[in-house]
Structures are given as structure tokens and as C-alpha cells.
Predict the 3D structure of the following.
Amino acid sequence: MVGLDDVKLTISTLDIESTDAIPKTFNLEQNFPNPFNPTTAIQYHIPFDSHVKLIIYDLLGHEVSTIVDENKVIGNHIIQWNGKDNLGQVVSGGIYFYKLQAGEFTRTRKMVLLK
């Protein structure tokens, strides 16, 4: 018979913290692929929960599509753009800009849609 004095209980913790998991600063990556047809991925990083807007503009600065306009949690995010405007119409080939606004952070990058 086994007594309580014969049983050992070992408790340990697993540290899964990664320095890459939580971004330290806001960042907007270059879309991939670029040039693209028909879809592209846009990655951005936010260091704390924020309201995020990601808007696509044409070469003349007209808004084409709002692909994100919501509160997002801290972390790394990827969104796909399908080359369509806010009305669901396929846009023409050309140069487009995408702009990320989150908190006080704003960054704009250029991408090319090939047809």
C-alpha cells in the first residue's frame, strides 16, 4: 500500500512568451504579392488594442475601398484585398495606395494591380 508520504507532486510552468509575438510598435508591411492579380495580402502590427482603419485609394486620392474599420486587439494582423471597390465592383489595373490609421499612427504604402 502507498501512503501519502510516498507520493510526490511536481508542478511547473511552461513559459511560452515570445518576443516576436507581441509587436512593440505600429507597423504597416508592404503588401504581398506586389504587383498582384487578383488578390493581395496586407499585414500590419499593433502594439495595443486600437481602432484600425485600412483604406485603399486610387492614384488621384479617391477612396476605393475600406477594408478595415473596427477595433482590433494587440498583435499581428493580415487582411486580403480582392481588388474590388466598396460597391463590390472589380477595379481597373493600376497604382493604388493603402493607408493604415491606428491611434496616432498613420502610414501609407503603394501597390500595383496588374490586369
Residues 56 and 62 are 9 Å apart (CA to CA).
